[in-house]
Specification:
single chain, 110 residues, 6 helices, flat
Length: 110
């Protein structure tokens, strides 16, 4: 499970709690593996803020000259195969999220 999906899993669990009759016990139990992983890594790294420090070091530094959408454009501008693949993947995730958001808004409004 990639760390980028944690907020989505939390929102999915909250949605299931509200709309799919997920019990509070099941809701709490669904978070146990993530909590155990986080605590184990915090102990191993000797740093309770290990997640933010790691991502701040590795993902927040700009790879291109653009302040916005650098994860897509900056990675594509690297020119290597990994950069092209990663940039394309991030772009497709961005487009999918935008399309899904539009679909969910239309289904709610009518």
């Amino acid at each position: 499970m990639h760390q980028a999906f944690y907020p989505f899993y939390l929102l999915l669990a909250i949605w299931c709690l509200a709309h799919r009759r997920l019990s509070v016990v099941q809701f709490g139990a669904s978070g146990i593996p993530l909590i155990l992983y986080y605590v184990t890594m915090a102990i191993a790294q000797r740093n309770p803020n290990w997640v933010l420090e790691y991502h701040g070091r590795s993902h927040l530094k700009a790879s291109g000259a653009l302040p916005a959408f650098d994860a897509i454009i900056g990675t594509l501008l690297r020119g290597n195969a990994v950069g092209l693949l990663k940039g394309t993947f991030v772009f497709l995730v961005f487009i999918s999220a935008a399309l899904l958001r539009g679909t969910s808004l239309r289904s709610v409004t009518g």
